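Lecture 7, part 2: worked example. A protein chain together with zinc ion.
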Amino acid sequence: MIPSGFIQDLLTRVDVVDVVGRHVELKKAGINHKGLCPFHGEKTPSFIVSPSRQTYHCFGCGVHGDAVRFLTEFVGLGFVEAVQELAQQVGMTVPDDDRTQEERQAQAQRRQEATTLTDLMARAAVHYRQQLKASEVAVAYLKRRGLTGEVAKQFGIGYAADSWHGLASAFPSYDDPKLEEAGLVIGQDVGTPKEKRYDRFRHRIMFPIRSVKGEVIGFGGRVLDGGEPKYLNSPETPVFIKGRELYGLYEARTAIRKAGYALVVEGYMDVVALAQWGLGHAVATLGTACTEDHVRKLMRFTDSIVFSFDGDAAGRKAAARALEACLPHASDTRSIRFLFLPPEHDPDSFVREHGAPAFEEAVSRAVPLSRQMLNLAQQGCEMDAPEGRARFANQAFPLWSALPEGALQRQMLQAFAQEASLPVQELSSLWAAMARARGQGFGGGSRPGPAGLAGPLGPSGQRAPDGRTPDGRAYGGSGGSGGYAISTDGSYGADPAHPGGIPMGVPGASHGGVGRAGMSHDRHGASPGFGPKRRLSWAERQALADPMRRGAAPPALRRTPRSPADWVTQLLLKQAQWWSRLSADDLDLLHHLPAPHTTLLRWLERDIEEHGPRPWAAIQLAMQDAPDLGRAWRQLQHQETDESESHWESLRHALDQLHLDRLQLQQTELAARASQDPSALAEYQRVFERWKHLKQALAAASADGGG
Ligand SMILES: [Zn+2]
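Predicted complex, written out as structure tokens:
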């Protein structure tokens, strides 16, 4: 809790005119400042910012508030985040938290590093804009695409010249390693005589990607001619996590409020082209599938989202993933719809050929979430045969159970029952039985299960010979310190809040036969699903999350993120003194981790008992003498880590991720038992509360990390 006295104090030190002025162009008008209201969109200014009262007020739409409110309502920051942002601007320290001095310093340092990166990128953006002015070829290209200078300016579009060292003139030192860290420059054979550096982006139209605060956090570059790749994005950096950021959101905020919904399209050219046509409320994901983080971020600005997808197979697949990301957020007050354009069109070409009104008309006929759920569940089912309807009921279950409780969920139960030609009661008892079966299905192991549902684990929990595992896509999620293999988004099991949840498949999307078996979550490879009969234990899921186990990972998998379990194990071995800070709950969690983690951690625990916490060097020596420990250590995914990441906060975060994941599993198990055992329901409530608190704490911590 931040004491209210502090906020009062803070508000007397910040200047609302500064804060608002960073986002809205203000002109002095008497004792006040005046501008176009960013909340409702208008042609004549009725938005007044008062320095004497330290508030803003709109006479058009009635919005009103102070600096903190502006940051939460307009910029989309969380409350704590907004307070911290302002405090930082005026050099105050928020007395909110129980973090140690050390942890606070570490965070301040990360913030400082992030600022360095965004400053560099801002500088590069200026350079690219100047280059655009100087390049006839690039200007001609933009004109051909129908873009005016005004829109180019609004999006800060630039041009990276066809030169290996174009950025050299923009920075005092081209050798600055920070340029590499920012992803602007690529270093080769660094530290050797053959060392060379060159610009990542060459001969490309440059689209700066901005955070909601307006900082440049990355770039997208599009080739002008037939070069490859057509689109090139900045690599992920501490300030640029693709699963969280949306291109154009900063520019679209006012238009989203005005239009009443956000339009999610597939590419940045679509975003810019739509803005050119007066449809400024479009945003795009950055070459990744839509994630829950994207949806959550958008939901800060609007309750209504329309996804626009190309009408081809890839577009339908992308729509299925977006649906999956949306389901947990589909509360009764929100509207989520899916627009499928004719196969020959993307939004850019559609609006060029048919005009903006036709596009808006198409949006008004977009498929609602409820219908899209039915469509997905019906894929591959012959609905006029009992077998097909039975399959449909199976495929519908994971979709339905991912919905939050509420009127929509109840109505969908009815809708699914109607389609399945079953009374509602029967469908719901069928689904309860499915949930139970899942709860009891694990452990026997000998039952092969329906085709495709067995998952990658054999009877004894060994890897299947094909070496495939569920994808461990890196997930911004709540992973503040970044880059964990997935553990909280439900890829391996139930959606936490909805005990019935199993991985959302696109039923039958890829191969008709394996309907509910789930889908590949990303392009890296197939993701065998876990059907109703096969539920993984928490430990198994950790084992799967362990990237070392996917020896045969497809080559496309460039960098496998380490799992939280790997990270926890590594940190504890290196910082044995932290062992004594672990809670009983943490220890219980660690004792249940699978090999190789358990091998290392159990040994470490004994070692600490015997010798007390020993330095890493001593532990390394001891490990060298024990082949099984060495083997286990090598099985962990090791990532080049900057030493600044080796802090207690990072360990705490990873532990909490593991706790969260485990609580989810417990919920699923309890929910499956709840229909027969009333005590399980009470226990479920308790676990759910714990899960919820932890999730919130993690989200807050992640927001604090600055993202
Ligand atoms: Zn207004």
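Residues 4-96 form a domain with the DNA Primase; Chain A fold (CATH 3.90.580.10). Residues 37, 39-40, 47, 58, 60-61, 63 surround zinc ion (CB under 6 Å). Keep this in mind for problem set question 3.
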